Amino acid sequence: MNDVWNQIRLSWTWLTASAQWHGDDGIPHRLLQHVIYSGVSLACAAVIGLALGLLVGHTGRGGFVVVSLANLARAIPTFGLVVYVVLVHYSITAALIALVALAVPPILVNTYEGLRGVDADAKDAASGMGMTGWGVLWRAEVPMALPLILLGLRTSAIQVVATATIVAYPGFGGLGRYIIDGLARNDYQLVVGGTVLVVLLALIVQIVFAALRRLVVSPGLLGTARSS
Amino acid sequence: MDIDWGWIGDHTGTLGDHALIHIRLALLPVLFGLLISLPAGLACRRWQWLYAPVLTVSNVLYAIPSLALFMLFIQYTGLSASTVMIPLTLYSLSVLIPNVVDGLGAVSEPVRQAATAMGFGTLRRLVQVELPIAVPVVIAGVRVAAVSSISLVAIGQLIGQGGLGYDIIRGSQLQFQTQILAASVLIVLLALATDAVLVIVQRLLTPWSRARRRTS
């Protein structure tokens, strides 16, 4: 227990030292970098994953292929991919591509599964009410699939926030900088401080998605939907 | 993309050794995770109030970056294999426990009652009826845990635990693309092979699902 207490005290001293709050290596700058990297990657992944997932889920064609490809993509070691693409072309865009590749599968699979799980009777009823394909998609399928879609986005967001630490390895900053530098310098305080910040950021993401879920998911669904 | 095939040819032995270390570092944690999550999942089914806190803890755990979690364990277990394996075990728990609970929850009440009516006690019903029915959901969790664990072990090299992560970092230090690419491709292949084995295991464990498909 002493160790744990010590750890908390160490990270607290580090977090509250005023030197950490200024300049290019200061927490605000690193945090902003981290948030931008994660946000951009997640946004790109969301566009790709949602578009493909909605297309495949709505038409019901090619589902097996898409899910298999997504599972294949899950097997790609992000660390290797980041190091490789950065070596081929040293730029932050290259590093972010690796993060996008990490974030697409959960969004894609959950969107597809969400649409596929929509009750066929509900879809029939929507068509019966005179909705066209788009209408059925936007006004019946998407709202009913929303809990799963949000779950996919949340999973991706958390993975991206956690994994964005490794873009510091090829030298693009972000919160991972503290962890990698601390490790190289045997400065444990730095490692713990960086870790605490990443975990806090991930927790904020969780809270944001919990709030989103309350806001955008129809209450009729929340009552029966499994909380996860 | 310049791939130095000669280098790969010369290093098949070392790459193979690293792949073996890699798979051991990746899959032992999943095995431990499975061994822990079965009783833990059962406990969550038995005492329902336990499930919500367990789920929260595992969600939070999952949010901790692997690199960070490895770091936090350094001061307890040093630069040893446990420093990589304990965090990976925790990650696999966060995938497996919900799946075990869901899998057991998927057993329909009539089936349970039928088993009881046939004179099965609680333990026998669990082992012979409930667990087999839960197998597909549990294995689905094991597949996710195993694949992500195999790709996460690569990061373990940053604290010097070998495996294919060694080749990724070495290749990065030497600016040698072939080594990084070879190691990454091998990691994907290991993950795919493991996944395929798990699918086969599931088929073997649930022969009835095939029989049903044939008759329908």
Key phrases:
heterodimer; A: mainly alpha; B: 216 residues; mainly alpha; MetI-like fold; transmembrane (chain B); ABC transporter permease subunit (chain B)
- Which fold does the CATH topology of chain A refer to? MetI-like fold
CATH architecture classification of chain B: Orthogonal Bundle
The CATH topology of chain B turns out to be: MetI-like fold
Q: Describe the biggest sheet of chain A?
A: none
Morphology call of chain B? elongated
Segments of chain B where pLDDT lies below 50 for 5+ residues?
Answer: none
Total helices of chain A: the number is: 10
Structural class by SSE content of chain B: mainly alpha
Main location (chain A): membrane
Pfam family, one (chain A): BPD_transp_1
Domain ABC transmembrane type-1 (chain A): 31-209
Transmembrane segments (chain A): 35-57, 78-104, 144-169, 190-212
Topology:
The complex is a heterodimer of chains A (228) and B (216).
Chain A: H1 2-16, H2 27-59, H3 63-74, H4 78-88, H5 92-116, H6 120-128, H7 133-163, H8 176-184, H9 188-216, H10 219-224
Helix pairs in contact in A: 1-9, 2-5, 2-7, 3-5, 4-5, 5-7, 6-7, 7-9, 8-9
Chain B: H1 5-10, H2 12-46, H3 51-63, H4 66-77, H5 81-105, H6 109-117, H7 122-152, H8 165-173, H9 177-205, H10 207-215
Helix pairs in contact in B: 2-5, 2-7, 2-9, 3-5, 4-5, 5-7, 6-7, 7-9, 8-9
